Amino acid sequence: MVDDRRDLAEAGRILARVRDLLGQEEKLLRDEFGDVRRSGDHSAGSPAQTLQGINQMHNCAQDALQGIAVALGYIELGMEDEARRWTARARRTPVGIPSGAERMRRPLGASTIEALELARTHLGGFFRTEAWAMSVDIVLLSPQATYPPDDWREYDRRHLHKPE
What we know:
By secondary structure, this protein is mainly alpha-helical.
């Protein structure tokens, strides 16, 4: 549990920074776009999708940080069963990061890029999955927003491997 405590604490500090960066970006975007609920444009990269994406990533970072805090609390209390359960839960890959960025206009803002790079560089090992780090790279390299797709049939075919 001592190694878990160190790993959790380091991941928590990094996630707090990621959350703060995403929160800064969310505020900037809200100030720029204003109220977009009635805009009618919900295409990939639109203001509505961009705000939804940044909000998704910000909330995901906050939820992951809270899970780490709970795991650390149980470790500190010596409640081993709960600590093991919450530590395993805290190590689940936060799918909202980077998938929220798939919705966002390009170029991504500086704080979003910094948050994603920080997460990829320092949290890939914590979440114990190379696929997650690669998905961050893909989002960072994408020249445009990719979600929601213009053609749902094509999207389903490519992502669900459905034969036509």
